[in-house]
Amino acid sequence: MEALLELKNIKKSFGPNHVLKGINLDIRPGEVHVLLGENGAGKSTLIKIMTGAYTKDEGEMFFQGKKIELTSPSDAMDLGIATIYQELNVVHELTVYENIFLGREIKNKIFLNQKKMKEEAARHLERLGQKRELLERKVGDLGIGKQQLVEIAKALTVDAKLIIMDEPTASLSGSEVEQLYATVNELRRQGIAIVFISHRLEEIKRMGDRVTVLRDGYGIDTLPVKETSADRMIELMVGRSLDEKFPKKDFTKGVAGLEIKNLKRKGSDKTVNLTAYQGEILGISGLVGAGRTELARAIFGVDPIESGTIKVFDKEVKIKSPRDAISSGIAFITEDRKAEGLILDQTLDFNVGIASLKTYQEKGFINLNKIKDLTNHYIKELQVRPSDQRLHARNLSGGNQQKIVIAKWLATKAKVFIFDEPTRGIDVGAKVEVYRLMNSLVDEGAIIIMISSDLPEILGMCDRVLVMCENEITGEFDRHELSQEKIMKAATGGR
C-alpha cells in the first residue's frame, strides 16, 4: 500500500542539542500507527515537524507521493493533517458548532452563516456517532471525552486524511476511553490514518496496527503490533530489559508521620480520617470525582478546611495556605504539572528553586549560585534531559517536566510527599525512575502518599490502600489482601 505520509532521514537540532538524528517513517491510509518512546526520545519534535510547527533541518517529506515542504501549521492543515493535543484547544464559553468552526467560520457575504455551520458540524458529529442535540451545548458543560470528540469533528471539517492524537486517553474516564476507541475504529474504517502517541501498552496492543519505536532521537524499529510483545516494546524503547515494572521494596513500618482526624472540607458534608506511617507507600484509589485530589488540596492548604486536625510527626499544624503546608514540611506533586506544577516560561533553575527561596536568602538577597548548584545536583540525580538548566520548562518532555516538579519539592526538604497521579503521561522507563525515587524517599524516612487511577500501579507499589467514594473513605486494604475487585467494589460505594 502506498504511504499517505513518508518521512526520510528527518533531522532536527536546537543549538547543540540534536533531537532527531535521522528518522524514517511511513504512515498508511486507514491504519493506526503508534509512536512509542521514552520522554525525550523525540516524539513531540517529530509531531511538530509533521504538522508544520517546526521546520526540519535535513531530510525529505512526501504526502500522497508528492514531495512537500511544511513551513507552518496551515500548510499541514491544507494537506489534511490535523492534530489533537493532550491539552485540548477548545473555548469553553462557545457552543459545540462554534468551536468546530472557530477561526474558519462560514460566512454569507457579511454575516455568519450559522445554518450552514450547524449542518456541516452535525454531519461530522454523526460520522462520530453523535447526535445533533450536541450542537448548541456549551463545550465547557461537556466532559473531557465529548470535548475531545469536538476536536476530532473539527479535524474532519478540514477533510483530514491524517489525524495525530497525542496521549488522547490521559485524562479520560473508562467509558470515555471506550468511546474514543470506537471513534478511532470508525475513522480507520473511513480510511483516515491515525498517528497515536501513547505510553499505555495495553491500549497500544488493543488499538495499534504498527508501532514505531523512538529512542534518543533515532527510529529504532517499526513493527506489527499484534506480533510484538509488550516486553519487547519496552526493551526497544529503553534500550534495556525492565525486569521490574514496579520495583517495590519492603520496609519496616515506623511511626505515624501524617495524621488526619475528622477533616471536613468546605463544601463537603463528609469527614476523612487517615494515618500515614514511615516505611510505607500509602495509596489512595477511587474513581474520577471521588474526592481524592480535593482531599490532597485541602491538606496542602489550596482548598479551605472547615474543621478537623492535621498532625505532622505528632505536631499539630494549622494549614490555611500552601505556604503553611510548605513550612510544615508537606510537598504536593499535583496531577497537572503544566498548569500547577511548573512555570513553563521560566528556566529550570527558577522552577527548582521557587518553593524554597527562603532557604537561599542571604542578607535580604537570593543566592542564585546556590540555586544553580542545587539544580545541577537534581538534574544529574534525576537524569533530566536535556540537562541545560537555562532551558525553559516548556521545552522539556512530559517525563522530564515531572522530574523538575519533583526536584522542586525535594529542594524544600519536605517530610511528607503527596504524589497525585505521578506517572500520568510519562513513559515506562520514567515511571520506574519515579517509583525508585519513592522507594528512596521512604528509605530516608519520608511519608509517601500516592493518589492514582492506575490500578496496576496501586497494586504494584503500595503497602496499604485507602479507597474513596463520594468524598469519604469506603475501604482500607493491606498489601497482602489487595485486589482490583476489592478496590473497585469500595470505589463504587460497597464497603
Key terms:
single chain, alpha/beta, six-stranded mixed β-sheet
Hey, roughly how much beta strand do the residues contain? 25-35%
| Measured distance between first and last alpha carbons | 55 Å
* Strand arrangement, major sheet: 6-9-10-3-11-12
Shape: globular
What does this protein look like?
- The chain is α/β, with parallel strands linked by helices.
- It has a 6-stranded mixed β-sheet with strand order 6-9-10-3-11-12, sandwiched between helices. A 6-stranded mixed β-sheet has the order 18-21-22-15-23-24, with helices on both faces. Strands 2-1-4-5 form a 4-stranded antiparallel β-sheet, with no helix packed on it.
- The model has no long low-confidence stretch (mean pLDDT 89).
Blueprint (SSEs and pairs):
Elements (H helix, E strand, L loop, with lengths): L4 E10 L2 E11 L4 E6 L5 H8 L7 E6 L2 E3 L4 H7 L1 E4 L11 H5 L6 E2 L2 E2 L1 H14 L16 H14 L4 E5 L7 H16 L3 E5 L3 H7 L2 E6 L2 E7 L5 H9 L17 E10 L6 E6 L3 E6 L5 H8 L5 E8 L2 E3 L4 H6 L2 E4 L3 H5 L6 H6 L7 E2 L2 E2 L1 H14 L16 H13 L5 E5 L7 H16 L3 E5 L3 H7 L2 E6 L2 E7 L5 H8 L4
Parallel strand pairs: 3-10, 3-11, 6-9, 9-10, 15-22, 15-23, 18-21, 21-22
Antiparallel strand pairs: 1-2, 1-4, 4-5, 7-8, 11-12, 13-14, 13-16, 16-17, 19-20, 23-24
Helix pairs in contact: 4-5, 5-6
Overview in brief:
The protein is built from 17 helices and 24 strands.
